[in-house]
Amino acid sequence: MKKYAVEFIGTFFFVLTVGLTVLDPGAGVGAPLAIGSVLMVMVYAGGHISGGHYNPAVTLAVWMRGRCPAPDVPFYMIAQWLAAVAAGILTLYLKGNPVITPMTPNVAHAFIVEFLFTFALAYVVLNTATSKNTAGNSYYGLAIGFTVVIGVYAAGAISGGAFNPAIALGITVMGISTAANIWIFLVADFLGGAAAALVFNALNPDDR
User: pTM score, two decimals?
Assistant: First the structure.
């Protein structure tokens, strides 16, 4: 149970930070740095308990890689999605229930960048936080968090920069993205996580 609580807490602060820094009055050009930084500190805070996924696509990748027991997978994802909804609702309350114009991304462009940067994120997680060759390192949280910083700066204007189905749900609750577009994130992000696991396993056949 404590693993699921940690996943809820980490995902909650992750999504809350996204909302508070993106919705006006937000953090402007500093928003990606804040978003990546909160992921970094939450990974360091909870990694030793739950693995610090805070992302259903990462949970899928870690499971496919063989480092997350199958019975934990649905409960990790439920905790992450519940946290996203709670954080989304709280963000709207704290921001005074603002009128928000949802983004209207180009579907193909958004799908491509969501897939690529979710792949990059899961690939970094697998290599820095689950590989026997990097076991015990002190940089995994920084590497994971700054992958998100890079992705949001690079692709935020194209897709919104979710790279995470829980973030996608959170920004949908907030009205930053529409319910009609959530499939882009769900499909692209889960495919990106799965692809990262397949690549990791292919490149590291002896690390099981």
Answer: 0.97
